[in-house]
Amino acid sequence: MHTNREKRRLHLAAKVQQKLHLPPAIRLRRFVTRHFMILLGAALAALGFVLFQVPYNITAGGVTGLAIIVNKFSGMSEGLLVWIFNVPLLVLGFFQLGRWRFLGSTVVCVAAFSLFIELFLNILPSMLAPYPITNDKFLASLYAGVIFGLGNGLIYRFGSTIGGTSIPARIIHNQTGYPMSQVYLFTDLGVILVGGLIFDWEMAMLALFTLVLSGLFSDFIMEGVSQLRTAVIITQKPDQVRYALVNEMRRGVSMWDVTGGYSRQVRTMLYCTVSRSRVNDLRFMVSQLDPEALVIIGVVQQAWGGYGNLKLKNE
Length: 315
Description:
The chain is built from eleven helices and four strands.
C-alpha cells in the first residue's frame, strides 16, 4: 500500500514525464540538429587549427598543442596524434565522468575533430596557393583563436566536448573542488611553455593570445551577447514604481518586503529585467517617482517566459 506522500510523488512524476514526453518526430529532429551542430563545431575547430596553428607551430595548449610538438619529432599526422592522445583520456572519463553517457556525448565529437583535421591537412595545401593563407604570425594567431573558439563554443553549446584537457580538468574539479578554470590554466600553460622551449618564445606568446581569444569566443557562442539587464529597486513608493514598470515599460515585476540593515525600516524591493537600451528610461522613471530609491543594475545573459501580452487594468 502506498502512503499518500508516495502517491503524490508518483502522480507528480507521471505528470512531469507526460509534459516532457516528445513525439518521435520531434525527438529525431532534435537529435539530428544537435549532432549536426556538434559536427559543424568540430569542422570549424579543425579548420582554425589546420589553417592557422599548424603552419606556424602555435601550440595553444591542450592535445592540439601536444600534437604539434610531437609532430615535429615523429612526423606523425596531427589528426592521428589528437586521436591517440584522447583515447586514454576517454577511457579515464568513462570511469570517472558517467560511463556510457559521457562516452556517447564525447567520442563522436573527438573522432569527428580528428577526422576533419586529417581531411583538411590533405586537401587544403593543394587548394590554397600559397599555403598558409597569411604570412602574418599575429593574424594567424588571431584567426586561430576566433575560428577554433567559435567551433569549440558550438560543441559545448550543444552538449558535447572536444575532449583533451577538459576531461582531467573535470575529474580534478569533481574530486578536489579545484576550479576548472585554474586547472585549464596550468595544463594549457604547461603545453605553451614546452612549445616555447622547442620552437621559439614569440610563438609561445602568440599561442597564449590564441588561447585567451579562443576562450572568449567560446563563451560568446555559448552565452551570446548580453542584451538584457536586471534591475533591483528598493523604494518607499512601490505601487507607483510597479505601475510605471508594468504599464509604461511593459515589464513584469516581482515584489517583496525587505528590512534595512542600518535603519531597520521596512521597504519594498522590486525585481525585473529590461533591455539594455531601456536602462536610462527605467532610471529616469524611478528618479521621478522616488528620488531616494536605490537602483541596482546587473547583467543577465538570457531570460524568457514570465510577462506576456496580458491586458493590464488601469489603476
